[in-house]
Amino acid sequence: MNETIIEFNNKKRLIHLFLGVIITLVCLFSAYYMIAIATKIRLFPAAMMLMLGGMGIYFSVIAVKDMLKKEHAGLILNSEGILFKGTSAAREIGLVKWSAIQSVSLGKAYGASFIFLKLQRPDDYIQNLPAQVQNMIRTNGMAVSAGELSTDLNKLKDHIDQYYRQFGQLNQ
Question: CB–CB of 89/129 below 8 Å?
Answer without folding.
Answer: yes
